[in-house]
Structure formats: C-alpha cells, structure tokens
Amino acid sequence: MGPYLANRGGGVSVYVRNISERLAKRHDVTVFATNPGDLPSFEILNGVKVERFKRFAPSGAYFFSLEMLLRLKKANFDVVHGHCYHAFPMHFSSFAKRRKFVVSTHFHGVGHSIFRHSLIRLFKPFGKNVLRVADTIVAVSEYEKLVLCRQFGLDSTKIIVIPCGVNFSEFKGLKRRKRDHKSILYVGNLVGYKGVRFLIEVLPMLDSHIVLEIVGKGILKSFLKNRAGELGVLDRVRFYENLPRKKLLQMFVDANAFVLLSRYEAYSMAVAEALTLGTPCVVANNSALTEWVDGKHCFGIDYPIEIDDLAQVIGEVVECREKIDGKRFNTEKIKDWDEIVVQLEGIYEAPKYFVS
After folding, report:
1. Cis amide leading into 244 (omega within 30)
2. Looking at the domain assignment, is residue 296 inside a domain?
3. Which of 36, 63, 115, 205 has a Cα at 20 to 30 A from 9?
4. Do 149 and 209 lie in a common domain?
5. What is the pLDDT of residue 124?
6. Of 163, 354, 355, 173, nearest to 266 (Cα)?
C-alpha cells in the first residue's frame, strides 16, 4: 500500500499519521511528503516508510515538488491514497501506477485569500479531472460531500463519508482540575477565517474571572495581542504554541467552553476532541460545524456574528459547564482512529465500482 501524500503540520498531517501508522501494522505503507528542509529524505517511523522531497511552498502553502512528481511517475503501488485538494501532492498522486486510486480532499470550497481563491478557480479543470479518475473520494463530513458534488459535478455515489478519528486511549485518566478562574479555549491557526478575533472582541463583555486561552500560531497573533491591549483585556488572554500533546488535552478538559467561529471547516478535529472530553462547544453555525450543533453539548451562532449575542451564548455555556455532560454527545459522529482505518481498508480492498 501507499503512498499517503502528506505535508508537515496541520489537521491533514494528523490524519495521515494516524491512519498510516495503524495501516502499517498489517500492510506495507509508504508516505510521500514534502520536506521543509530540516528532516531526513528517508526514514522509517512506527513502521511507516517516509520519503520526503524538496518543495516550493510560499507562505506555507501549495507544496509544489517537481522531485516528488518525477518519483511518482516511476512508482507502482497497490493503492494510492492522496490527501488535500489545496496542495499539489494530492494531484500529483494521480500519476503513480496503481490498482486503486483513493483521494481525501479535506475540501471546504474556498481559498482563504483573494489570491488563493482565484488559484482554486484557475486550477479547477485539472483538479476536477483528478477527482474523476479517482476510484473513491473520501469526505470527512456530509458538508464536504455536498460541496464536492456542487463544485465538480461529481456523482454522489462516488463519495464516501468517513469522519476524522479520535484516539480515545489518549484521554484515559484525564480529569478536570480545580482552578481559581474559568476559561474559554481556542485551538487552531491564527488566521482570519477562523474567527478568533471575535473572542478578543467579546472578552470585555464577559465576567472578569473568565480567561481566554489561545493555542496556535499565525499571522494574526500580533494583531490579537494589540487588540486585546486596546480593549484592556490583555491580562486575561494567554497565548500558547507547540504544546506537548498531554498538556493540550488537559487544557481541553479544564476549559469551561471550547469556541470555534470559523467560516469554513470540512470537519474539525478540535471540536471532536473537546466533545469527547466532555467540554461544551460554541461554533459558527455554518459549513461542517453545523453538523456538530445539537443545542445540548454544542451550540451554534450565525454569521454575521453579533458580539452581544456571542457574549450571551458563551456566558451561558461557561456558567452551565457543570450541567453539560459532553460525554453523552452523539458517539456515532465521533469514532476511534482504529475504526476509521477498518473502514478505509474496506475501501482499499473493495472492487472498483465507479467508472468516470
């Protein structure tokens, strides 16, 4: 089996690592990834063969690699599973010889800037062809499946919805700690479309004992700090980067609410982990985030976001934290990575059933 086309960092890499390491217990798995320049060109990690290639990645995007493309043209695998429509490796994966071609697009329909959105439109004819030659497309939500059908005119029977997974074993033994404050938590990139700035704007309207914890890095970090200073709440905002996994999960457990006001999401592993740990969530009521909203453990707020309304929703969720049992959230939507891999193996082994 292989390759599982991936890039360093972000949700897609988390997805690729989790499925490839589990698949490697039963199959020969190779991951092709681009190299930021400080990693070996080849190594074996947890049973997975990893080949890395020189890349051109302006602003940490696109991940163009001529070296990878040439290698793929010579490659021959039983199954090729390409990842992430928004980067070149998934599209290059179509050049490899294989018995079956599967793609996971992680696609939510738009670019995150005018330039990136224009590039998606210009690239559409080639991207559409890659999706059409794929035997199966894996979407992580019903929303992603709908967007793919609408934008590329795909037959819905070609797309199978399999959500991202959660490593339940990581959560064993985690317990909430007693603290002298309450917190709202954000975990993710600090970029415009994620809506993190609304959490700075709303903080002055929340009780003074509520702290905002932001885990992530990105181009908005300086702006967020400056804005918090202007609003007089900088002492109530705590920034974190590159946290050890165990410490991050503890922050999820301790938080009174996890908030994600992103305009575009194909799934959201962070929301899945928060709900698994029993932490109530407030999310933007759009894209795939809508699929999490149940009015009991996850609460939605519509765009355009009104700060007064946001303050009311967050305030109520924070104060009712003890009464909200997130562990009763719809478990059908949150699955362990082991179960996700079994579903993927079923796709890999199934006969080709769709021809375009």
Report:
1. no
2. yes
3. 115
4. no
5. 84
6. 163
Note whether 314 and 174 are same-domain residues.
Answer: yes
Token reading at 107: 């696609």
More confident residue, 114 or 281: 281
Burial bucket for residue 351 (CB in 10 Å: 0-12, 13-18, 19+):
exposed
Q: What is the DSSP string of 123-162?
A: HHHHHHHHHHH-SEEEESSHHHHHHHHHHH---GGGEEE-
314 and 179 in a common domain: yes
| Rg over CA atoms, the chain | 21
Per the structure, the complete domain to which residue 273 belongs is given by 168-333
20 belongs to a structural domain: yes
**172 & 158 share domain:** no
26 and 119 belong to one structural domain: yes
Same domain flag for 310 and 340: no
Torsion of CA 105, 108, 110, 113, to 10 degrees: -90
Assess contact for 104 and 347: CB atoms under 8 A. Answer: no
Q: Is the pLDDT reported for residue 221 higher than 70?
A: yes
DSSP letter assigned to residue 204:
G
- Same domain as 142, residue 82: yes
User: The domain spanning residue 33 has which CATH number?
Assistant: 3.40.50.2000
Which residues does 29 contact at the CB level (< 8 Å), separation at least 6?
1, 2, 4, 20, 23, 47, 48, 49
Tens of pLDDT, residue by residue over 41-67, are: 999 999 999 999 999 988 777 899 999
- Give the per-residue pLDDT at 325: 55
Tokens of 318: 């924070």
User: Is residue 3 reached through a cis peptide bond, with omega within 30 degrees of 0 on the bond before it?
Assistant: yes
Give pTM, 2 decimals.
0.90
Q: Would you say residue 329 lies in a domain?
A: yes
Measure the CA dihedral 187/193/198/200, to 10°: 60
Higher pLDDT, 32 or 2: 32
Query: Are residues 283 and 185 in contact, defined by beta-carbon separation less than 8 angstroms?
Result: no
Q: Is the pLDDT of residue 114 over 60?
A: no
Inform me whether the pLDDT recorded for 11 exceeds 80. yes
**Whether pLDDT at 39 is above 60:** yes
**What's the average model confidence in pLDDT over 329-353?**
84
Do 289 and 300 contact (CB within 8 A), yes or no?
yes
